[in-house]
Amino acid sequence: MRTTRQIFTGLILLAIALLPAGVTQAQRAIPDNRVQVMLSFAPLVREASPAVVNVFTRKAVRSRGPASPLFNDPFFRRFFGDALGAARPRERIENSLGSGVIVRPDGLIVTNFHVIEGADSITVVLSDRREFDATILREDERTDLAILKIDAGEEELPSIALSDSDDLEVGDLVLAIGNPFGVGKTVTSGIVSGLARTQVGISDFNFFIQTDAAINPGNSGGALLRMDGTLAGINTAIFSRSGGSQGIGFAIPANMVRTVIDGAAAGAALRRAWLGASFETVTADIAEAIGLPHPEGVILSGIHAQGPAVRAGLQSGDIITAFNGQPVFDTEGLRFRIATGIVGDEAQLSVRRPKSEHEITLVLELPPEVPLRNERILEGRHPIAGATVANLSPAVAEEMGRDHFEEGVVVRAIASGSPAHRLSFQIGDVIFAVNEVEVKSVVHVRELTASPAPQWTITVRRDGRLFSLTVAG
Q1: Considering the entire predicted model, what is its pTM?
Q2: What does the H/E/C string look like for the chain?
Q3: Does domain 277-363 have CATH number 3.60.10.10?
Q4: Which one of the listed residues 49, 140, 144, 159 is annotated catalytic?
Q5: What confidence tens digit (pLDDT) does each residue in 59-98 have?
Q6: Catalytic: 114?
Q7: Class of the 376-472 domain?
Q8: Which CATH number does the domain 41-60+90-266 belong to among 3.60.15.10, 3.40.109.10, 2.60.120.290, 2.40.10.120?
């Protein structure tokens, strides 16, 4: 009598025969003979595995070592002072390991942002053990993706093509390839456990493929492979109470990966469309209040005067239930659909209104930079000297992952050791007022801080709340 494990193994080993590219739902079937059960993933792994690489990073970390306990003795402090016992800065090298996927034969590699974040040097090791120094072409913290490039000369490297991740279904077989725990390249198998997982909290664009294929530390940046040999997604995180795989892993869908890759090799800026509207998930309470039989979609709460939504005829109170035929369940799902759209293309929105349903065509556009950002470093003798500030616009808000309706002057960077740094101002703070004068623009901030003052009061908006700091001039 066959065990449950044998039956499950048989289902998995059937993959290559039953799931060619473009397979339809009707063609999916379970094994019905011994030959089918004895099929193997080996040909698929042999073809795809060389395109999965190891990514090693090195980062110098400065820290203060422990001071000698002798310097705590009052006798030593009396003669040599407190400064003698101060711990001296020490530098140590921090190494980390992750995985990556070659997606173009010229050496273009996709990995996770968190794998290479802050690295001073990055080394990519191929399956044949050759090592290459990698350069970073793009870092996108919001999607937790990074694009690397290695130079293998004229050689065409093995690569994996990206699939259309919208074709995935729950129950589809997948393979996870990576280097867990640094033990070497490993292949695990499983199924797609869920789609459009949006309550994960890993990145700004929360929209993940869930799989039970074992993913462990070191798998980050590796390939989640479909049975036709294409890339379903990039493995990025696990849900675990122990640090090891517990059958709940998450991958960034290939359609999001594609948007981050596009233009990276040419050095083009990352371009993401926007809707030009604010929206929220239709909850059970909202559905009951507006008379819906059940909660679905997102409801528009505001329309931006400069956005594509107003030009498409969308209105406050409209409920978007689908985007290009794909159902929309929550705000994260709609953000994902917009972010993976191609700027300039038309999108078809399914919209529900109180007494009617509509199909509305919307042209995907870039958020405008109005007003111009006028990015400047603030100088002088005042508390926010050393901060780089810019005028907020929909374009700047999109870059920073903020509300497109937000206005004001935002802090974009802070110089180390500057007054702004010492006084704990933060990137993302919106300068609301200087000495109780409400700030209107970057030019206005520079005017308000141009002359000395006996006392400075700086008011900032942070996480929706106002904070004030008063210091002597």
Answers
A1: 0.78
A2: CCCHHHHHHHHHHCHHHHCCCCCCHHHCCCCCCHHHHCCCCHHHHHHHHHHEEEEEEEEEEEEECCCCHHHHCHHHHHHHCHHHHCCCEEEEEEEEEEEEEEEECCCEEEEEHHHHCCCCEEEEECCCCCEEECEEEEEECCCCEEEEECCCCCCCCCCCCECCHHHCCCCCEEEEEECHHHCCCEEEEEEEEEEEECCCCCCCCCCEEEECCCCCCCCCCCEEECCCCCEEEEEEEECCCCCCCCCCEEEEEHHHHHHHHCCCCCCCCCCCCECCEEEEECCHHHHHHHCCCCCCCEEEEEECCCCHHHHHCCCCCCEEEEECCEECCCHHHHHHHHHCCCCCCEEEEEEEECCEEEEEEEECECCCCCCCCCCEECCCCCCCCCEEEEECCHHHHHHHCCCCCCCCEEEEEECCCCHHHHCCCCCCCEEEEECCEECCCHHHHHHHCCCCCCEEEEEEEECCEEEEEEEEC
A3: no
A4: 144
A5: 876 665 555 555 555 554 555 555 555 555 666 777 778 8
A6: yes
A7: mainly beta
A8: 2.40.10.120
